[in-house]
Recover the amino acids of this structure.
C-alpha cells in the first residue's frame, strides 16, 4: 500500500513539473522583446498586455477612435513570431493559430494578415491606417509608431 501511494505521489509530482515547464518563459531583458508598432495615425500611446492580447486574439477589432484594427503577423514558424507570442502575449503560437482557425471556421472573423518578412511588415504598417504589428527589437521603425506595452 505504501509503494502504491508513493508511486501515485511520484506521478503527480512529475506531472506538476512537466506542466510547469510547458509554460512560456519570458525573456529576461525587456529590451530583447519584439517592438509593437502601429501606423502613425493610431492615437494610442500605449497598450496594456491584456489589450494587446485582445487585439491579437481578434477580440478587439476597432481602435478607440473608431478606426478598424488591421493586424499583421510574421510567419508562424519565425523566431520573432514565437518570441512575440510568448513574451508579449503570454501565449504559444499554436494557441493563437487555434483561436484564428476557430474564428475563420465559425464565420465570425478572419485571421491576421501574414507577411513574409520584418521589412514587409514595416512597409505595410507604414501604409495601412489602423495597422498593428511587431518587429525585432533592433529593426528600424521609420515612419511608424512604437507602442509601449504596460504590464
Amino acid at each position: 500500500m505504501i509503494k502504491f501511494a508513493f508511486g501515485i505521489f511520484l506521478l503527480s509530482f512529475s506531472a506538476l513539473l512537466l506542466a510547469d515547464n510547458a509554460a512560456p518563459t519570458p525573456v529576461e531583458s525587456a529590451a530583447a522583446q519584439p517592438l509593437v508598432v502601429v501606423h502613425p495615425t493610431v492615437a494610442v500611446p500605449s497598450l496594456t498586455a491584456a489589450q494587446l492580447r485582445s487585439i491579437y486574439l481578434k477580440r478587439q477589432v476597432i481602435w478607440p477612435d473608431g478606426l478598424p484594427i488591421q493586424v499583421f503577423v510574421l510567419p508562424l514558424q519565425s523566431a520573432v513570431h514565437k518570441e512575440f507570442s510568448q513574451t508579449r502575449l503570454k501565449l504559444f503560437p499554436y494557441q493563437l493559430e487555434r483561436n484564428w482557425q476557430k474564428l475563420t471556421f465559425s464565420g465570425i472573423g478572419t485571421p491576421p494578415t501574414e507577411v513574409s518578412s520584418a521589412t514587409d511588415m514595416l512597409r505595410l504598417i507604414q501604409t495601412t491606417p489602423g495597422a498593428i504589428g511587431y518587429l525585432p527589437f533592433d529593426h528600424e521603425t521609420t515612419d511608424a509608431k512604437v507602442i509601449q506595452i504596460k504590464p
Remarks:
- The mean pLDDT is 85.
